[in-house]
């Protein structure tokens, strides 16, 4: 029931992500309380700021005396929000954010995800809230959506039981529209989708081998079953490369 | 009317499906469109002349799109084929459109359903806090009980999915999310209406089969619905769905208390609180059978009591609704309103005006006309604190004992004489009284006399 996930710098494992629920606060700084996020750098104030989860978005308070924090949208082509010193509870509108703290010449970063952003179902008009809506809402302009579309593409275009593409094939398929894509970026987005869609960790989660494949399989079957990706949505991938085996 | 819904199905008026001729659209929901229809000739003899046709766009013109609609349609058909209960909308037939000339319609699934007058959502839009609310809620609860008892979970209970029939009775409808229990759980498609979704399912964990739901999800939704019907507000604070969901999560985590509206009648406060218990485990203590008992008691509703009609025939709508609202607002003492005059066909029932815990006598049949109500005994109807002046020169034609069961209170005995004594023809009777009506009974009387006194008795 969390609504915001804070990903500490160089966080490798989901276990070290910090999940905060609506209304909860998370302090960060050089000497953050035990429940907070410690940013160990001498240039960072002891109590540098606070993150508050609020509905589907979050608020940032800047407790430093003289440093402006910048919150970037890594997928937003330079889109960012500046939070000046002393500003309390500035709302941050991005689904993915990178908080940049200037510290004695260095720039320190950590990520904050807001996977509960909501979207109206395709084709629906705004309604006062009593509408039956899918439990998940995907932003069709994001990279995770492109990754999901690429995973679903063979089954949408060919037969329903086509094998799933490998991460390498997905990377190649995405490259025309996303030149900097890498295998690790694809992995990252698959993991994020699993978080966003609330996939129950399958029984295979414990053993490392087929884990990713199981996750991919579940994502694709959910996406197809609930029409999260349709044939029309494959447009986000751009045209099929010439000579593709179809 | 149908615009703006992703799965609206436009069907031209006059279109024929099976033996049905489509008329005007009635409503458009998240997954399909409902049209009024009339039977032309043929058809099964047990089918009505009018029905509602629900079109679900399961067509094949776009083979890879909307595949979840097939599943949602199958769920509804499956449930309605197997369950027939008085409080669930009745399905007469399932048809598939076979019309290659209209690719938009070809392959659509058509459910032939009992036609309703409207939905609870429409009633609430016109009349927030309807006086018939408690009685309606008791019937909604009855429907939930019938569903749960048969091993199903509704999964999307809300005012738009509660239909009101011509006779004012309630039917649950829209079973696209319904799921049959497999042990303690059912798997439901991952769709929901956030304002009616229990906090543990707001961001559900999903498996390949969808989300797991349990009957307590319907219990939560009933709590929200009851609060809305009785107070015109949601139980959780916030001006937007997001804010209310947020509050639901804080409440579920124990960081916030539930503050129900002070407008919530005392009899319902405990019921709503139990329905909105923080977690599945706490809610599971209150199954639909026990809730039904309590809701019926809170509504003071005899199981068989009938409800007011949702709306009159045109063009008298506004006048009738205004009269009804006015009538229902004034339940305090002896109310004298002429109720039956706007009636245009069949008996309209006025019993619902009788406050819970009271016995009510009416000047017309079926609970219509002027009403006198008492919570306690009255040794003389024509003098004292409470009088019932119209009985001086007019007879009582119907009665409703809407009392609450308690030791020593099983029925109401009435007498032609004051101070609970026999007078006139009473003396010739063995019981030495005019009559006696048991708890929750209602009906028409001979209509030739008016009592002068009544008292609560252990039983009739």
Task: Give the arrangement of secondary structure elements.
The complex is a heterodimer of chains A (246) and B (460).
Chain A: E1 2-7, E2 18-21, E3 25-29, E4 37-38, E5 49-54, E6 57-62, E7 69-72, E8 80-83, E9 90-92, E10 96-103, E11 106-113, E12 133-134, H1 143-157, H2 167-174, H3 183-196, H4 211-225
Parallel strand pairs in A: 3-4
Antiparallel strand pairs in A: 1-2, 1-11, 3-5, 5-6, 6-9, 7-8, 7-10, 10-11
Helix pairs in contact in A: 1-2, 1-3, 1-4, 3-4
Chain B: E1 16-17, E2 20-28, E3 33-39, E4 50-56, H1 67-82, E5 91-96, E6 109-113, E7 118-119, H2 120-126, H3 133-149, E8 152-153, E9 162-164, E10 170-172, E11 179-180, E12 186-188, E13 191-192, E14 206-207, E15 210-213, H4 215-231, H5 241-252, H6 266-275, H7 280-283, H8 288-299, H9 317-329, E16 358-362, E17 371-374, E18 398-402, E19 411-415, E20 435-438, E21 442-444, E22 453-457
Antiparallel strand pairs in B: 1-2, 2-3, 3-4, 4-6, 5-6, 7-9, 8-11, 9-10, 12-15, 14-15, 16-17, 16-18, 18-21, 19-20, 19-22
Helix pairs in contact in B: 3-4, 3-8, 4-6
């Amino acid at each position: 029931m969390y609504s915001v996930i804070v990903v500490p710098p160089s966080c490798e494992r989901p276990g070290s992500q910090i999940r905060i629920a609506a209304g909860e606060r998370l302090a960060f700084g050089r000497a953050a309380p035990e429940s907070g996020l410690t940013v160990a750098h001498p240039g960072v104030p002891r109590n540098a700021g606070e993150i508050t989860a609020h509905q589907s978005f979050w608020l940032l308070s800047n407790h430093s005396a003289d440093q402006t924090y910048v919150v970037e949208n890594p997928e937003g082509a330079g889109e960012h929000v500046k939070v000046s010193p002393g500003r309390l509870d500035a709302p941050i509108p991005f689904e993915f954010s990178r908080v940049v703290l200037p510290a004695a010449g260095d720039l320190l970063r950590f990520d904050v995800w807001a996977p509960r952003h909501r979207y109206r179902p395709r084709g629906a008009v705004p309604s006062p809230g009593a509408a039956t809506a899918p439990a998940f809402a995907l932003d069709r302009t994001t990279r995770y959506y492109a990754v999901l579309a690429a995973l679903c593409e063979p089954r949408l275009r060919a037969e329903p039981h086509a094998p799933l593409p490998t991460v390498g094939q997905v990377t190649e398929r995405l490259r025309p529209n996303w030149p900097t894509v890498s295998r690790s970026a694809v992995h990252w987005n698959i993991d994020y989708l699993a978080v966003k869609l609330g996939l129950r960790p399958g029984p295979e989660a414990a053993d490392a081998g087929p884990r990713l494949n199981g996750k991919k399989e579940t994502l694709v079957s959910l996406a197809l079953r609930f029409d999260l990706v349709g044939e029309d949505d494959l447009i986000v991938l751009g045209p099929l490369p010439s000579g593709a085996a179809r | 009317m149908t615009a703006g819904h992703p799965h609206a199905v436009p069907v031209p008026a006059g279109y024929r499906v099976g033996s049905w001729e489509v008329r005007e659209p009635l409503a458009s929901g998240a997954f399909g469109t409902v049209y009024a229809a009339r039977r032309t000739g043929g058809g099964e003899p047990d089918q009505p002349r009018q029905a509602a046709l629900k079109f679900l766009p399961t067509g094949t013109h776009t083979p890879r799109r909307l595949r979840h609609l097939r599943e949602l349609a199958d769920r509804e058909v499956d449930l309605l084929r197997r369950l027939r209960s008085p409080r669930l909308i009745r399905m007469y037939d399932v048809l598939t459109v076979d019309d290659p000339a209209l690719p938009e319609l070809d392959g659509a699934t058509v459910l032939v359903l009992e036609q309703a007058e409207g939905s609870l959502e429409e009633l609430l839009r016109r009349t927030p806090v309807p006086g018939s609310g408690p009685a309606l809620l008791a019937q909604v609860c009855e429907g939930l009980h019938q569903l749960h008892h048969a091993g199903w979970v509704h999964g999307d209970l809300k005012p738009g999915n509660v239909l009101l029939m011509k006779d004012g009775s309630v039917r649950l409808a829209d079973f696209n999310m319904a799921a049959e229990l497999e042990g303690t759980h059912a798997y439901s498609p991952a769709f929901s209406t956030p304002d009616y979704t229990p906090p543990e399912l707001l961001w559900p964990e999903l498996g390949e089969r969808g989300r797991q739901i349990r009957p307590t999800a319907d219990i939560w939704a009933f709590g929200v619905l009851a609060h809305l019907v009785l107070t015109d507000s949601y139980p959780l604070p916030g001006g937007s769905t997001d804010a209310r969901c947020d509050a639901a999560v804080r409440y579920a985590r124990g960081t916030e208390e539930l503050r129900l509206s002070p407008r919530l009648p005392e009899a319902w406060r405990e019921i709503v609180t139990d329905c909105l218990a923080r977690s599945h485990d706490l809610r599971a203590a209150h199954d639909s059978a026990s809730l039904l008992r309590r809701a019926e008691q809170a509504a003071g509703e005899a199981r068989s009591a009938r409800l007011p009609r949702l709306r009159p025939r045109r063009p008298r709508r506004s006048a009738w609704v205004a009269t009804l609202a006015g009538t229902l607002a004034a339940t305090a003492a002896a109310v004298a309103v002429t109720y039956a005059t706007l009636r245009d066909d069949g008996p309209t029932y006025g019993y619902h005006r009788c406050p819970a815990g009271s016995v009510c006598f009416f000047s017309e049949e079926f609970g219509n006309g002027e009403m006198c109500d008492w919570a306690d005994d009255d040794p003389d109807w024509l003098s004292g604190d409470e009088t019932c002046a119209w009985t001086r020169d007019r007879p009582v034609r119907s009665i409703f004992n809407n009392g609450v069961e308690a030791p020593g209170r099983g029925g109401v005995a009435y007498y032609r004489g004051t101070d609970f004594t026999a007078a006139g023809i009473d003396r010739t009777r063995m019981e030495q009284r005019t009559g006696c009506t048991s708890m929750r009974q209602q009906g028409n009387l001979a209509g030739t006399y008016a009592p002068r006194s009544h008292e609560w008795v252990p039983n009739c």
